[in-house]
Input
Amino acid sequence: MRLRRQYCLGALLAAAALTLGACGGGDDAMETANGQRFNQTDVRFVQKMLPHHMQALRTAEVAIEDGADPRVGTIAREIVKAQKQEIAKMQKMLKQFDAPEKPAPADQQMVWDQNVADERDADSPQEVDLVFLTNMIPHHSAAIPMAQLENEEGDYGPATTLAEDIKTTQRMEIKEMVALVRLQKND
Output
């Protein structure tokens, strides 16, 4: 139990850092090569959400490979499918913004790497499922305020639409994962 609290604490710290790091305000508007308006909020949102999604893929892939519960496998595959599509959109956006991809801050990357290591070191496939779920819930929760900020201050239509999709999808997945955690604890 103490170990699971550490998973959650680390993930919550990463969520808080991501949320605070996403704050910024709608800066001066710029235009893509085809004349679409965007601002620095759009750029920062994509640059921060991209490594966030890449980490979700890593975590979900371990759950698919090593987990036991087919329901957890299903949600992990849904996360992989949706986030691969969103990653492709974000990479395209950064090209349109003429902005580079950025890695996650070192402290966040360290937490995410530990989450994957914890999954890989789990004593059983059932524990892999539980580690995945208890790490992914706060991970997804961190994306929601990032997406909300984009909706409030972003100028680029495709980015604000993506942000709205992320909020909707991840809220739904959080509910599913919370229910699965309850089921895991009752099994």
In short: Residues 51 and 174 are 19 Å apart (CA to CA). Residues 2-8+39-186 form a domain with the Ferritin fold (CATH 1.20.1260.10).
